[in-house]
Amino acid sequence: MGRVKITDAQRFMSDCLKAVGTASKAADLQAALLIQADKFGHPSHGLNRLEMYINDILSGACKPNNQPKILKESQSTAWVDANNVLGATASQFAMDIAIKKAQETGVGWVSVKGSNHNGMAGFWSQMAADKGLIGMAFTNTSPLLAPARSKQAALGTNPVSVVAPASKGESFYLDMATTAVAVGKIEMQLRKGEPIPHGWAQGPDGKETTDAQVAFDTKCLMPLGGNETTSGYKGYGLAAMVELFCGILSGANYGHHVRSWSHAGDGGPANLGHCFVAVDPERFAPGFGDRLADCIQHWRQLEPTDPNLAVMAPGDKEKKAAAEAEASGTVSYVQQQIESSAALAEKLKVKPMQVEVDLQ
Amino acid sequence: MGRVKITDAQRFMSDCLKAVGTASKAADLQAALLIQADKFGHPSHGLNRLEMYINDILSGACKPNNQPKILKESQSTAWVDANNVLGATASQFAMDIAIKKAQETGVGWVSVKGSNHNGMAGFWSQMAADKGLIGMAFTNTSPLLAPARSKQAALGTNPVSVVAPASKGESFYLDMATTAVAVGKIEMQLRKGEPIPHGWAQGPDGKETTDAQVAFDTKCLMPLGGNETTSGYKGYGLAAMVELFCGILSGANYGHHVRSWSHAGDGGPANLGHCFVAVDPERFAPGFGDRLADCIQHWRQLEPTDPNLAVMAPGDKEKKAAAEAEASGTVSYVQQQIESSAALAEKLKVKPMQVEVDLQ
C-alpha cells in the first residue's frame, strides 16, 4: 500500500487525460469523479479506471472534446446524444438538464446514448441532491450478470443510485450494483488466496462456485439475491430495469449488445446508455428533510446483532471513508495500482504521483 | 386445495366488501386487484387479504366511501391525500394522474398519503403500461425487514414494480418485495415441516435462522441479498429508497412509524404512503418496444444451467400462471383459505364461493 495526497492524485489523473488530448475542463471533471470514488473507499471506480479511459481515447473509441447535444425534449424529459465524450462530461451535461427541468416542472428525466463509462453512479445523483432535489442515476455496463437459471451473462452490473438531502446535515446515499458483488471483490479473495462465499458467482457449468480463480476466469456474476432459492431473480429483474431505463430507452447499445470489458479500448465506441432523474421534494408534503433525517437517525440506533458492528444508514460507510481521507489529506492505493500508475506516467510523459509508502 | 371459478371468486370478494358498506365501484376495483394476484400465482396478495380489508372497514380504520383529493400539484407532480379510502381506489386515482401528466410533459410523479394496503404493486404499474407508458409503483408497508446488522425490523417488505410495453405482444413486468422473501414463503415451509434456506429470516438473537417456526414467530425478514457477506445492505438500501418515495415524500406514516401487521383492524388508520410514476418512452429514442422485445426474447433463449429449467424474462412466471387460470376459468385455494372464506360468507351473510374439490 502507498499513500498519495488527494490533490496530487487528482492532478495526476487530470494530467494523464490532458496528455492524450482532453481539454482541461473535461479532464478535471473526470478526475474529480475518480478521486471521489477513491475517497469513498471504492477504489475499483477511482484511479483504477483511468487507464481504460486513456486507452479508449488513444484508440479513438472515445472523443473527449466532442460536445453532447439534446436530440429531443419535452417539459420534463430530454433525450441526449453524448456524442462519444467522456462519461463524466456526458453525465454532468445530462444531470444539469434533469435538475433544471425538476426545478421547473417537479421532475426531470433524461436518457443518454452514445456515452462512455461514467464512474460511480452516486456522484451524479449527488449533483441533484446538492440542489435540494432527489437525484437518481443509472447506467448500463458490459455483460457480466447471469440472469437467474442462465449459464451465460446477458446484463451488466447495472447500478442503481439515489441520493437525497435531509435535515440536520444528513443525507440518504445509495449507490449499488445489481449483482451480488463487483468483480473487484472476487479479485480481492483471489489475492488473499481465500474462497468466495456462496451467491457471488458462477462457474462455467452455470453453477455457483466458491473457487475465486474459477469465478474470476468465468466472469459470470450472480444477481443480487444469489441463486433462485434466495430470490436471485429479483436482482436480475433490477438489472433488467436499469437496462430498460438506459440502453433500451436511449437507443444506446443495450444488454447483450454492449461490448465486453476485455475489448475496452479496441472494440470501437462503447455507446453506453445512462439515465438521470431529478425530483423536487418541495412539490410534495412539507417536512421531507425532517422525516428523512428521523429515519436515518433511527436506523443508526437500532440494536445491533453484534454489539461491535453498529447499524449504518445507506451511505454512512462512504461518508466515513471520505471524512478520514479528508482528515489525512490522502488516499491509499495498492502496490499494483501504484506501479501501473508510474508506468502510465512514464508512457504519457506526465509527472508521476508522489507516493509515501504506507507501513500499515 | 379447491377450485373456484374466477368470476365467482371475484363476485364473492366484491360482495363481501359491499356487505360492509363499500360502494359498488370501489368494491369491484378492489376485487379486480385481488383476483389478479390469485391468477398470477401470488395467493398472499389475493383473496387471502380480503379479511384484513373487511376488518379495517368494520373497525372504522378504513373509510371506503371517502374521496381521495389532490393537495398540491405542478406540471409533472401531484401530492394526493387518499383520505383513508381502500388502497385500490387511492391507487387508481393517483396512477390516473401520473398517466395524464406523463402524456402531457413526458413524466408524471404522484405521491400519496393517508392510504391503505394497495395489493400487488404491479397491478398499478400495468395501468400505465396499458397506455403505452413505463409504469412504476411503490408502497411502504408494516415493519418486517431488519436492516443489515440490526436485530430489529425497521422497514416494510416495500415493493418495487416496473411494467413496460414491448413490441410483438411482449411486456416487461417486474414486481418484487425488497426482502429476500415474503412471510408467506416461510409459512409454506412451516406447513411442509421443512427448514428455511439461509438468507431469508432472522431469529430473536438477530442471527440468520433456518428454523421456519422461529422465523415465523420472530417476523424479522432479511433484506434481498441476505447477510452482509452477500450484500444484504443492498436490499436494505432498496427498501429504504422505497420508503423515501412513499412515506417520507408523501408525509404518510413511514418506516418504524407504520402500524404493525398484528394491529390490522384495531390500530387506527394505516396512513400508508404510495408512489406512482409514469414515463412516456416516445419522448426518447424511437424503437423502444423493439429493443425491449429483443432483450426479452434474448433472455428466454439463454443456455440454461439446468436443461429442464428455462431462463425466464421478468413476468413470464406470472403471465404463464394467468394464462393457465384463464384457460381453466378457475383459480385454486388452499383448504384453510376456503374454510375462512366460508366463515366470512356466513358472518357477512354473503353468498359463499362455490368450491370444487381439487383432487390434484
Automatic annotation (TrEMBL), chains A, B:
UniProt-listed Gene3D superfamilies: 1.10.1530.10, Hypothetical oxidoreductase yiak, domain 2
Keyword Oxidoreductase: yes
Example of a GO MF term: oxidoreductase activity
Keywords annotated in UniProt: Oxidoreductase
Pfam families: Ldh_2 (PF02615)
Coiled-coil region list: none
Keyword Cell wall biogenesis/degradation on entry: no
Annotated transmembrane regions: none
Homology family: Belongs to the LDH2/MDH2 oxidoreductase family.
Name of the featured protein: Uncharacterized protein LOC111348672
Organism name: Spodoptera litura (Asian cotton leafworm)
